[in-house]
Amino acid sequence: MHGQTWPAISSTQSVALADDWKVFSYAALAVALVVWALILFAGLRFRRSRHNPAPRSQKESNAVLEIAWTIAPLLVVIALFIYTLRIESGVEALAAAPPVRVAVEGYRWGWSFRYQGGPVVSGTSDKPPEMVLPLGQTAELDLSSRDVVHAFWVPDMLFQRDATPGLVTAFDLTPSRTGTFLGRCAEFCGLNHALMTFSVRVVSPAEYRRWLTYEARQ
Amino acid sequence: MKTGLMLFVSSAVFSATIALVYWLVAHDPAGTMLLGFMSAALTVVALYMVFAERDADLYADKKKATPAEAAGEHVGTYVTHSPAPFWIGVSLTGVVLGLVVAPAAAGLGIVALFLLGALMIVRSR
Amino acid sequence: MSAAVLDRVTPPERHDILSWITTTDHKRIGVLYMGTTLLFMAVAGLLAMAMRTQLAVPGATLLPPHEYNEIFTLHGTAMIFLVIAPFALGLANYLIPLQIGAPDMAFPRLNATSYWLFLFGGLIVFAGAATNEGAASAGWTSYAPLSDITISTGLGQDFWIVGLAMVSVASIMTAINFVTTAFIHRAPGMTMWRLPIFTWEMIATALLIFMAFPSLTATLLLLFVDRRLGGHVFDPAFGGSAILYQHLFWFFGHPEVYVLILPYFGIVSEVVSTFSGRPVFGYTGMVLSAFAIAGLSMGVWAHHMFTTGAVNNPFFSLVSFLIAVPTGIKFFNWICTMWGGAIRYTTPMLYALGFLMNFLLGGVTGVMVASPPLDFHAQDSYFVVAHFHYTIGGGSFFALFAALYYWWPKVYGWRLGEGLGKIGFWLTFVGFNMTFLPMFFMGVFGMPRRVFTYPATGALPALNAVATVGAYLLLLGGILFVVNVVVSARRREPAGDNPWQGYTLEWATSSPPPEHNFHELPPIRSARPLRGVEYAKAPEARPT
Q: Which ipTM did the prediction report?
């Protein structure tokens, strides 16, 4: 089972999410490196020493500089916002007629997966439930909770959504890689929150149909 | 003290604006109520500042004032010790623990607070 | 009023316990606040050591799940409500009247009341540990329905609610005092635009407390109504809303983290300015950015709810990104304060530099999680834990120690040792980064927060082991601080009025100050009144 290392980017949505991660990580790193360099340079260069016994100036403002470092970051964050908006609307888009629909319910401390027109898979930490999904086909998950707020998180798909009691929230997952991926509850829900795992197993569409028929007979 | 006035007026205007924008964008009653109450509270203070500012003439706001100029004016007496704060703390502790654990403690706490209030009224005469 | 007259009307200072219990002197209240928060910090720190020890290896059985949940709840609650915020409020209590040239706060009895409410409220929160099912264990965020009576059945949760309600009221009282004092009790010539940056940051903090804490008090009350008075406000089974709890809590919760940082921005400004020998660069920008941060921070609360699917993510994402701009302004101002200076690397200056290095990483990772798509993976993971520990731990906590070393001689008249201080700084800096840097990766690799253990696969075991070693280095740094206090107390190296050649008014009086703060005030003609004093003594030193 894949997990607890670099995420496997195993859904179409997570490709866009991974791009978002890359853009923001590089931007954050770039800003941090530049500002760290400025801090360290100022901190070392202007140490008091025999060559630098007293401050060389008492200048306390520079209008051009101050306006520049207000406008420039403003433009950068607006650009980042526009980029993020595009990514989010793509990721949150819901397909009109998804081939797979699963009603997911979290409870203390396990999950149940009710396939539309199909089987119900459920389990707790003793035997964590496994959600089987077909490769390349969009699955709409309708998520809710039986008791407290939980969260359905598949790190390898870079995605989670809260399971809130009294609310049903829908999102699409389109698996793009076969394999078995670890799932966790991400919203603290009490005693066995740490053990409330599940897995997502992505198989070929033919294998999925076989599984559906087999499970329906159980 | 114009700066204080500007501070509360701009805060009131900013929060009213953000409350309106939030309602138009999100149509979320909870958040709009919270922002609305916040802006109402700031407006109350801002209105007070407008009236208070009319008669304000602090030595502190005069750029070239010296302590000697302000000397001699008796503005009041600073309290240096008082048993009231500790007593309020103990009484309120009794009240809240009473709410949780035992009503008797809450009752005792409230009585203690009343006694304190009465004592302060008597001593201030 | 002349010194001679004041000495006649002021009774001699008492030192007995009763005089401390009945004091309304802002300096004593400040010391009481700061001392109490350091004790709470020791407890909360030991709770963290317990957690890190449990998490050092996967599958450890040192802490069973329920105890672990109580421990992280108390750790977070204490660090936020009983350490970082009240230390700043206590420091401001001590400093604001001194920095503005006033003899005390505007409402001395209210001031003392806020301390006792804070102390008793904090003790009540911890007293929950002695109840039937132990202390509160629903996290410092205490989400409903988890914190509701059907699930959190013990009294500890109720103790948490009422204790924090007392702390909340105490904070509002203190904020009232700060704003009134700063507006009305400034010395002649101390105009608002000559106030030290620390005092300005505290005014902004007080404004934030006014706007945010009423929501906390209301939320706590509603939670209590649901738990003990038959309410169903947050109970979906009866038409209540779990999402409503999150709105109400985070409307307070997000401004709270700016309450946790603005005072420390002020501390860093004072320390960097003094030890660079230069004025704070961009004074106007510093003041305006403090209020920009405060104002914007009231509009970002639901970025903690990006993964609910129930809020308008773009609104909160945009405002969250915007906060980076005034924060950046402050960073550039601090760098320019150092630029062209002659920096003296005392212990407080080292801690201030550590703040700058650490908080930067906390800040840029904050911009990262302001992007909802990124947050869909990072939310409730160790990535967020790393982010907020870099801002509050790497930021506020480091500035807290800068403040301790910087103002200790003013409060006590003797200094803390520089040798042990510097060793302690390096231990803390290395230990801090060793503990929290791996957590960014733990989060990316899929480790959720608030877990008492994790599977023994992938990179998590190694990363957790490194973090635990770092935590023990932090512990060592803390122990060294205590040793330094004891050793320096024995030595009692007299500090004098102005050991650091600072510029602000608190350095114009004796160490410690007399009961009424000042025997006489220098003329106040700028934001650096003591620099004026220097020029009066040596006009040739004035720059052209």
A: 0.97
- Run of H or E residues at B9: helix B2-26
Q: Using CB atoms and an 8 Å cut-off, which of residues 194-213 of chain A contact chain C?
A: 194
**Structurally, how many domains does chain C consist of?**
1
Residues on chain B touching C11 (C-beta within 8 angstroms): 80
Neighbours of C19 (CB within 10 A): 14
Q: Tens of pLDDT along B54-84?
A: 888 888 899 888 888 877 766 667 788 999 9
Tell me which fold the domain A1-218 belongs to: Immunoglobulin-like (2.60.40)
For residue C183, give the CATH number of its domain.
1.20.210.10
Q: What is the pLDDT of residues B29-54, one digit of tens each?
A: 999 999 999 999 999 999 999 988 88
**CA dihedral sign, ordered C135, C137, C143, C148:** negative
Contact C253, C141 (CB under 8 A): yes
Q: Which amino acid is at C362?
A: G
Structure tokens given for C132: 């039937």
What's the burial of C540, exposed, middle or buried (CB within 10 Å: 0-12/13-18/19+)?
exposed
**A145 has a pLDDT exceeding 90:** yes
Among residues A53, A129, B34, B28, which one has the least CA distance to residue C315?
B28
pTM: 0.95
The pLDDT score that the predictor gives to residue C2 is 46
Identity of residue C245: Y
Cβ contacts of A171 on chain C, cutoff 8 Å:
309
pLDDT of res. C541: 45
For A62-108, write each residue's pLDDT tens digit: 999 999 999 999 999 999 999 999 999 999 999 999 999 999 999 99
Separation between Cα atoms, residue C50 and residue C38, nearest integer Å: 18
Q: Is C300 helix (H, G, I), strand (E, B) or coil?
A: coil
Instruction: Return mean pLDDT, chain C.
Output: 94
C-beta of residue C26 within 8 angstroms of C-beta of residue C94:
yes
Q: Which of C282, C309, C357 sits opposite A39 (nearest CB)?
A: C357
Structure tokens at A215: 């499970």
pLDDT confidence of residue B114: 84
Dihedral of CA atoms C474, C478, C480, C482 in degrees, nearest 10, equals: -170
Extended beta strands in C188-291, E state: none
- State the nearest Cα–Cα gap between C430 and chain A, in angstroms: 16
Q: Which domain holds residue C473?
A: 3-541
